């Protein structure tokens, strides 16, 4: 979702054509970070901070079924993906001695999963590369709601309001801008971490996974990763991919196998499930995708 949810830079530079491909992929998923090393904004990258894209993610996170699918048909089971991600975390995480009662939502976008995680832990930190997404999440934290524009078609918009559910204790949640591959050293430790639609949009996913062992060091900690496994050279060099390639032995390597290889020494796999999600672009053009969700418990 994306830094999924915000600049899709190639590690050193991107061509205009590559950027246009990144834009299309970016709007599908939640994570947004491409390269912390590249600090300058490349031409065209302002699209990632656009009001249109912000509206897409606000309705993705907080929209009603009627706003998202205003028809008597459609994939209604794909709605509320951020909420379902938080629920999957809390299904497995139980406060216990030795576990920090804190959650990290990395690639949080506009914050729905972070707010829902606060129902089960005392503190939640949401991090995303997109400053506009973090600004929106902080507005929701402060006010409990925010107005935004929802595109219908072309330049035709309607006004909408994103609202945090009233029973959520917003004081438990904080948001900050950051790169998942270069997280600040002072984050501390957590009892549960959510990385939704993130790993296949990182420039160095293996480095991110290695960092998780220090963020979630205590036995019993819960890690939830969801991914559609859409590996693209525009996000990372192919040698950084966790899967989606043919190995030297001629066998296909999947993203799930890559996760098992990287996480297996430190985590036990406790559940895997297919989770559909639905992103509304306009009143009539939308995206339906199935993420593979895996739940890991720290050894």
UniProtKB/TrEMBL annotation:
Q: Name one Pfam family in it.
A: Methyltransf_11
All copies of domain Methyltransferase type, residue ranges: 104-223
> Do you know which Gene3D superfamilies this protein is assigned to?
Vaccinia Virus protein VP39 (3.40.50.150)
Question: Which superkingdom heads the taxonomic lineage of this protein's source?
Answer: Eukaryota
Q: Which CDD domains match?
A: AdoMet_MTases
Protein name, as recorded: Uncharacterized protein LOC101856202
Q: What organism is this sequence from?
A: Aplysia californica
Q: What is the lineage of its organism?
A: Eukaryota, Metazoa, Spiralia, Lophotrochozoa, Mollusca
């Amino acid at each position: 979702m994306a830094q999924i949810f915000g600049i899709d830079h190639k590690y050193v530079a991107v061509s205009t054509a590559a950027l246009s491909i990144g834009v299309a992929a970016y709007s599908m998923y939640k994570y947004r970070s491409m390269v912390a090393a590249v600090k300058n904004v490349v031409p065209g990258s302002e699209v990632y901070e656009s009001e249109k894209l912000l509206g897409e993610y606000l309705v993705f996170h907080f929209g009603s079924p009627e706003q998202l699918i205003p028809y008597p048909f459609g994939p209604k089971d794909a709605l509320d993906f951020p909420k379902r991600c938080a629920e999957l975390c809390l299904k497995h995480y139980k406060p216990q001695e030795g576990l920090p009662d804190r959650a990290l939502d990395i690639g949080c976008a506009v914050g729905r999963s972070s707010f829902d995680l606060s129902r089960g832990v005392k503190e939640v930190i949401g991090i995303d590369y997109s400053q506009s997404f973090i600004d929106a999440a902080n507005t929701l934290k402060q006010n409990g709601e925010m107005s935004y524009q929802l595109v219908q078609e072309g330049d035709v918009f309607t006004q909408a309001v994103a609202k945090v559910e009233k029973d959520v204790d917003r004081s438990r949640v904080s948001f900050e801008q950051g790169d998942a591959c270069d997280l600040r050293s002072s984050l501390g430790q957590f009892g549960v971490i959510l990385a939704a639609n993130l790993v296949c949009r990182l420039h160095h996913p293996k480095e991110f996974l290695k960092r998780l062992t220090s963020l979630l060091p205590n036995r019993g900690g819960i890690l939830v990763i969801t991914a559609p496994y859409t590996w693209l050279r525009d996000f990372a060099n192919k040698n950084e991919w966790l899967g989606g390639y043919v190995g030297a032995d001629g066998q296909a390597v999947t993203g799930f196998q890559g996760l098992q290889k990287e996480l297996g020494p430190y985590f036990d796999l406790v559940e895997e499930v297919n989770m559909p999600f639905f992103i509304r672009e306009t009143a009539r053009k939308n995206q339906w995708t199935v993420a593979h969700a895996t739940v890991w418990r720290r050894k």
